[in-house]
């Protein structure tokens, strides 16, 4: 009978009603996945520190990737990387040709003589056969996928400016023998053995390293030397290394007096020993970082370095190494003149910071604005989302930037289920 026919729209309604969960249920499940990344509230994402608040809770971050370029703070403020250039998609994790890199590889991207915003087509591990030498005006943006630089050489930023490195994992970095390597679009030369640093910054300026995860390099995790300046390292996670951060490599290089570095909202965690950082000559602002472990000391240096520590949490290890600071066995009559100040730091488990120098340094400070310190009691929250595990889901909006040979696909997880229901229902009504 005609009356026994099933209306397909009604059938579809009951099917979708059964399989589509309520929005409140799905949000609570998402919120429970990983509180370490981002807390979810009824009105959306929570970003805890001044840098993350600039971009992190934008639901259209994949369309607005370059908004990140407006978010650098501290001495790296104004670093915009490849904001003025096109998007380049790395879709090949190989690194086989040091002289004529293959298009689609990371090495090919960083050598091009133009501003570039470099993203990735998928999760990948890149094992660099030799150090990766950058040219100016580049952003490496790992958001959307897990991008690992491991098992090979690290990054070399020499004689460059305006570089952003964001959202990558760097670990198990080794020294490499060197050889014939292209260092500029029009220059190939013989390079000596690399140091084995994850990131080496040499005579460079306007550098911002943000939301990266570092562990276990042959030499250092980040070295800043040879009059490099205007640098911010923020929201990074450091673990499992001995001599982690070196800012100023030699007492024979007084040109490092111009060096200015901001360390903000980082977490120094398990398995670290010393140099968090160690500083020579320059000015380093250490603000709202979380030091939960060190084996020897946290902050060290010499040669008249200025170190301003504000609003950090220092949790000393059990045992004898309670002092935050280390002055390289310099006589007190010398180091007393160095300005090393602790202001509003939270010192726990017996930690102590040996201050020296001018307590009124701020009255004579004439440099760029410093990041205002938040209370040290809030450091655990400010650093809640450190490292490269950003939780930024890759969405279809990014696929407009993929090479023309790519095949576009639809991720139904990115679509509103109510919109799907209404669209399909309307289509079926036209067919009935």
Automatic annotation (TrEMBL):
One of its GO terms (molecular function) is metal ion binding. Keywords: Calcium, Lyase, Metal-binding, Signal. Its cofactor is Ca(2+). Pathway: Glycan metabolism; pectin degradation; 2-dehydro-3-deoxy-D-gluconate from pectin: step 2/5. Residues 1-25 form the signal peptide. Residues 123-320 form the Pectate lyase domain. Binds 1 Ca(2+) ion. Required for its activity. Its EC number is 4.2.2.2. It catalyses: Eliminative cleavage of (1->4)-alpha-D-galacturonan to give oligosaccharides with 4-deoxy-alpha-D-galact-4-enuronosyl groups at their non-reducing ends. Belongs to the polysaccharide lyase 1 family. This is Pectate lyase. It comes from Lactuca virosa.
């Amino acid at each position: 009978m005609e009356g026994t026919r099933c209306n397909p729209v009604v059938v579809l309604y009951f099917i979708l009603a059964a399989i589509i969960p309520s929005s409140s249920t799905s949000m609570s499940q998402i919120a429970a996945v990983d509180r370490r990344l981002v807390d979810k509230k009824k009105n959306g994402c929570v970003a805890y520190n001044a840098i993350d608040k600039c971009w992190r809770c934008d639901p259209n971050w994949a369309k607005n990737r370059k908004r990140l370029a407006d978010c650098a703070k501290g001495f790296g403020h104004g670093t915009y990387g490849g904001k003025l250039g096109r998007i380049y998609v790395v879709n090949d994790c190989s690194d086989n040709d040091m002289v004529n890199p293959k298009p689609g590889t990371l090495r090919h991207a960083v050598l091009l003589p133009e501003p570039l915003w470099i993203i990735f087509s998928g999760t990948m591990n890149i094992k660099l056969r030799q150090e990766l030498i950058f040219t100016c005006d580049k952003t490496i943006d790992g958001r959307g996928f897990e991008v690992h630089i491991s098992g090979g050489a690290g990054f070399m930023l020499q004689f460059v400016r305006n570089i952003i490195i964001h959202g990558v994992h760097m670990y198990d970095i080794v020294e490499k023998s060197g050889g014939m390597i292209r260092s500029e679009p029009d220059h190939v030369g013989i390079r000596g053995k690399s140091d084995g640093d994850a990131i080496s910054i040499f005579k460079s300026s306007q550098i911002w390293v943000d939301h990266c995860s570092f562990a276990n390099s042959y030499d250092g995790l980040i070295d800043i030397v040879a009059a490099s300046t205007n640098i911010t390292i923020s929201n990074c996670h450091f673990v499992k290394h001995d001599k982690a951060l070196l800012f100023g490599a030699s007492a024979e290089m007084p040109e490092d007096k111009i060096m200015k570095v901001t360390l903000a909202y980082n977490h120094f965690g398990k398995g670290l020993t010393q140099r968090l950082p160690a500083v020579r000559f320059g000015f380093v602002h250490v603000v709202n970082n979380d030091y939960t472990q060190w084996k020897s000391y946290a902050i060290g240096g010499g040669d008249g370095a200025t170190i301003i520590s504000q609003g950090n949490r220092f949790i000393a290890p059990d045992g004898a190494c309670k002092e935050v600071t280390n002055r390289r066995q310099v006589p007190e009559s010398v180091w007393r003149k160095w300005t090393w100040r602790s202001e509003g730091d939270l010192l726990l488990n017996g930690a102590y910071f040996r201050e020296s120098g001018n307590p009124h340094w701020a009255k004579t400070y004439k440099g760029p604005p410093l990041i205002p310190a938040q209370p040290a009691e809030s450091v655990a929250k400010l650093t809640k989302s450190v490292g490269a595990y950003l939780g930024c889901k890759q969405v279809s909006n990014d696929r407009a930037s993929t090479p023309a040979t790519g095949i576009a696909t639809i991720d139904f997880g990115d679509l509103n289920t109510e919109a799907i229901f209404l669209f399909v229902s309307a289509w079926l009504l036209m067919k009935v």
